[in-house]
Amino acid sequence: FDRGYISFTNEKKIMLSPFISKMTYSKLNLKEGKIFHLLPIEGRERYLKHHREFEFEGWTDFLTFSKKLSP
User: Fold this and answer.
1) What is residue 27's predicted lDDT score, i.e. its pLDDT?
2) DSSP secondary structure code for residue 67 in this structure
3) Average pLDDT over residues 46-59
4) Which residues contact 21 (CB under 8 A, 6 or more apart)?
5) Measured distance CA(30)–CA(32) in Å, rounded
6) Number of other CB atoms surrounding residue 8 within 10 Å
7) How many of the other CB atoms lie within 10 Å of CB of 7?
């Protein structure tokens, strides 16, 4: 979470970064969209929004990174 490889929606669904392999997520028993019912969201919505927009390494970041690697 702190390094931006996972984040959460306000509906308590996990978001997985493409920078980590599917095998790693599988070993951790994490799947895109898995709901963490006990995750305390109330009162943290603003922080989570900031995390999703500025900390989370999502698909937009991945595509930008991939383009930099292309010749």
Assistant:
1) 96
2) H
3) 87
4) none
5) 7
6) 19
7) 20
Burial of residue 56 (CB within 10 Å: 0-12, 13-18, 19+) is buried
pLDDT in tens, 5-52: 999 999 999 999 988 999 999 999 999 999 999 999 999 999 999 998
Which pLDDT score, from 0 to 100, does residue 8 have?
A: 93
Q: What is the mean pLDDT of residues 48-57?
A: 89
d(CA 14, CA 34): 6
> b or e along 12-43 (b: 16 or more beta carbons within 10 Å of the residue's beta carbon)?
eebbbbeeeeeeebeeeeeeeeeeeeeeeeee
Which residue do the tokens 């509906």 mark? 11
